[in-house]
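Form 7-S
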Amino acid sequence: MPNPCIKQASNNFERQDTYRYLLGRYYVWGIMRSQKGIKMLNIYYGDMPEAIYNTSLYFDNTYYDNWLQDDFSKKMIKSVDKAVVLSGQAVESKALGVIPVTKLSGGLKTLLLISHQPHKIFNASTCGDNCAKWILKIAERCDTDITINLRHIMDFGSGHFQIRILNNDTVVNNMSELVQVAGYYI
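Output:
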């Protein structure tokens, strides 16, 4: 049953217009927030033409070796893929041995893209729930708001967080609130 408080787009053109309106509103809101020093994770659920969809292919063709050298990236790689960075071009995994960076998991590649190219919007549905805490950490440490695209409801855990759902410009503070809002767009 549709939520009467949320205007549902009747066709793709109306959905794109609604998205553009919300993105413009978000842009102005982001300027006001950045002046206060507040940063936030933003999520747009569903089809988003501006998002980079095939993150694995994009990563393989755009990453820089130094992306793997900082401590934050090394911690993500160890946590998500259970691998240790050997160089900017290779990691050692318990399961696979020494592998090139292009063979990292799709979720980890997406995290590295979000972390090192925060001005772009990536499809984070390639990430499993084990990446959720890292997405929140990236948003916390970044100098600007982070926007991701999701096509599923990611489990951000039982803790408190602030995430803006761009589809209807709502801020949610926990998984219960997120599921209630995101469910309308998935």
